[in-house]
Design goal:
The complex is a heterodimer of chains A (128) and B (369).
Chain A lengths: L6 E2 L4 E6 L2 E6 L1 H7 L2 E5 L6 E2 L4 E7 L3 E5 L4 E6 L2 H4 L3 H4 L8 E5 L11 H10 L3
Antiparallel strand pairs in A: 1-2, 2-3, 3-9, 4-6, 5-8, 6-7, 8-9
Chain B lengths: L7 E2 L3 H6 L3 E5 L2 E6 L3 H10 L1 E5 L4 E6 L3 H8 L12 E7 L5 E11 L2 E6 L4 H12 L6 E4 L5 E6 L3 H6 L14 E7 L2 E6 L8 E6 L4 H11 L5 E3 L2 H10 L34 H10 L4 E7 L10 E4 L2 E12 L4 E8 L9 E6 L2 E8 L8
Parallel strand pairs in B: 1-3, 4-14
Antiparallel strand pairs in B: 2-3, 4-10, 5-8, 5-9, 6-7, 7-8, 10-13, 11-12, 12-13, 15-18, 15-20, 16-17, 16-19, 17-18, 19-20
The chains are: A alpha+beta (128), B alpha+beta (369).
């Protein structure tokens, strides 16, 4: 369910490092918990994000949730497909439902993120 | 231990878990917000049928020779227009015109009525009505909420599904009429052609012990008709598209039925009722605010309590807002001064500190074909 090469936050974002770039999205658990996603608001390209900063909003029929940057960096790509097809986040949260790519400034910031095993353990402990 | 020890449960609690319902705390009740997903359930109700547990609703029995006089005093609509087996929707007001609740009134006979009230208001309503009975010695009021379970079968195929389970010809029940004793697969229920979705459909009242059997019978009967179990999430988006008010959103103790656009359920001609003086004054002096429907022009989902702006100034607020699964647009209801209420008026909705364009549109947003 949760790709081994990803790293995860306790707020249910995932991050995939590709060289000095990190692709970011929300986890299967997050999308399942939200339900049908109907709206996504993402930052513009070029915006600098600090680790832990709220960079956007994902809304389901009933809920509005902030999304937090798992790592700091400058936004270099945004998934424009989500504007017209936010349901991609439900259909393929770890793939086509990605949100943005940042150019990472300090890879060491990833150190406190969870690996897939630790994230699954975290979900279990939290009674998810 | 199921995590819901402190919540009230309907007789269908176990059934909801069996069907994969996601249980939430809804005003102290453990109820499913969704099963397969709000959008899918919503569409099932618009195109086929959905089955809801609404057993949390409150039910009061009003009986006695003064029952009608009492109800005429308590609610804003004209209850004398009801015939036996007929139902009426009515707001119920405070003296200042604010709203206590909105409810359905079922007339069994000239001296016997059933009131169905919002779950979250049951205790408040009962206390309020109990106080009012003091002026009416010939009335007995009882809270029978725990003696009833209630299921809502809603959607264009609701009649066909229910008809498959009964020998009674459902065509005999028109919109806002009921039959107190209908045999459904051997159990006796009250069937009314009412609902909170904007579709044709039925609300079925039964004994709590019969609720699971009835649910399963309906699910089985609707299997090849596209029937889905539906939760509170879809119930809310469905009623919202049909512009049916929800207490706490379009109505509350500071909002009158006139402001909420429910003037046709306020009968000034029937004689005295609680709130009449205040509502008459509102009508004569003109309303300070009105409920309007709007559609987002800019990107964003309006939500309850977001401000409504005109030239950067806050002029009102959103009472309900959501993505509309039927229209596939972001729409809302909100209160604004009458000057901004005309269809076509441009408004802005304050979303996370930014004004996002919206336009006033006609309501209901959805009317069944």
């Amino acid at each position: 369910m949760y790709p081994k090469e990803f790293r995860y936050t306790r707020e249910h974002e995932w991050m995939a490092l590709e060289g000095n770039r990190a692709r970011v999205g929300i986890t299967h658990y997050a999308q399942d918990h939200l339900g049908d996603v109907v709206f996504v608001e993402l930052p513009g390209i070029g915006r600098a994000l600090r680790k832990g900063e709220s960079f956007g909003v994902v809304e389901s029929v009933k809920t509005v949730s902030d999304i937090y940057a798992p790592i700091g960096g400058r936004v270099v790509e945004v998934n424009e497909a989500l504007t017209t097809s936010p349901e991609l986040i439900n259909q393929d949260p770890h793939g086509r439902g990605w949100m943005l790519v940042v150019e990472v400034e300090n890879p060491a910031e990833a150190a406190d993120l969870l690996n897939s095993e630790a994230y699954e353990e975290y979900l279990k402990e939290a009674g998810h | 231990m199921d995590g819901f020890e402190n919540l009230k449960k309907t007789p269908l609690f176990d059934v909801h878990q069996k069907y994969g319902g996601r249980i939430i705390d809804f005003g102290g009740w453990a109820l499913p917000v969704q099963y397969s997903g709000i959008v899918e359930e919503h569409r099932a109700v618009r195109t086929a049928a959905g089955l809801f547990d609404v057993s949390h609703m409150g039910e009061f029995l009003v009986t006695g020779p003064a029952a009608l006089a009492f109800l005429q005093k308590a609610v804003t609509n004209d209850v004398s227009r009801l015939a036996d087996n007929q139902i009426q929707y009515s707001p119920m007001c405070y003296e200042n015109g604010g709203t206590v609740d909105d409810l359905l009134i079922y007339r069994f006979g000239p001296k016997e009525y059933l009131l169905v009230v919002n779950a979250s208001n049951t205790e408040k309503d009962f206390a309020w009505l109990s106080d009012l009975t003091r002026g009416f010695p010939g009335v007995s009021l009882s809270n029978i909420s725990s003696q009833w379970a209630e299921l809502a079968l809603q959607g264009p195929r609701a009649e066909a599904i229910l008809q498959g389970l009964t020998g009674f010809d459902l065509k005999e029940i028109d919109y806002y009429w009921f039959r107190p004793r209908v045999d459904i697969k051997g159990i006796r229920v009250l069937v009314s052609r009412t609902g909170y979705t904007g579709e044709d459909g039925f609300e079925i009242y039964c004994a709590p012990d019969d609720a699971s059997f009835l649910w399963e019978a309906l699910m089985e009967g609707g299997e090849d008709q596209g029937l889905l179990p539906a939760g509170l999430g879809a119930r809310d988006t469905l009623r919202f598209e049909a512009r049916m008010p929800l207490y706490g959103h379009e109505l509350d103790e500071n909002t009158s039925p006139l402001e909420a656009g429910l003037g046709s359920f306020v009968s000034f001609g029937k004689g005295d009722f609680v709130g009449r003086v205040a509502l008459l004054a509102q009508r004569e002096q003109g309303l300070k605010r009105k409920l309007v429907g709007f559609e987002m022009v800019g990107r964003g989902v309006p939500r309850a309590h977001y401000p409504i702006l005109q030239a950067g100034q806050e002029v009102g607020y959103v009472s309900t807002g959501s993505f509309s699964p039927t229209l596939e647009k972001n729409i809302g209801l909100g209160f604004v001064p009458p000057a901004w209420a005309r269809v076509g008026t441009e408004l802005e909705i304050g979303i996370r500190g930014k004004g996002v364009k919206a336009i006033v549109v006609k309501t209901p947003f959805y009317r069944r074909p």
